What we know:
By secondary structure, this protein is α/β, with parallel strands linked by helices. The chain has five helices and five strands.
Amino acid sequence: MYEFDLLIHTFRFEGHPIAVLEALSYGIPCLLTLGTNIAGEVEAAGAGWSVEDTPAAIAKRMQDVLAARLEFPKRGQAAQNLVEEKYSWNQIGKQSLREYFNLLHPNYKITDVSVKSNNSLEVQR
C-alpha cells in the first residue's frame, strides 16, 4: 500500500472501514463518500476529504483533490496521527476497558484507563 498516494472509497454505507483505517495508518489520505462511517472524522482531522455519493459529486471532488495533491504529505501525516490517537490497539484497548467498566459499574463513570507496570489498572474519573 506504500505505493499509493490516495485511497478513494466510495460506499453508500460502510460501518467500520478497515481498508480506510489501514490506508490512513500508512499515511495515505482518503477521499470518502459520506456513507463511510468515518468520513466526517477523517475530513475534520485534515486526513482526507468527504463527498456526497453521486457520480457527479465524486468526479468533481476527485478533480479538486488531484489539483491539490501538494497537500497529500500534510494530510498523510494527519492520517497517521488520527489512527494513532483514535484507532491504535492501545486506544482501542483503553476504550474497551472504559466501556466494560462503565457497564459493570453504572454509578462510577470513568474517563480514562491506564495499565500500570505491574499490569494493574488505574482508572480516572
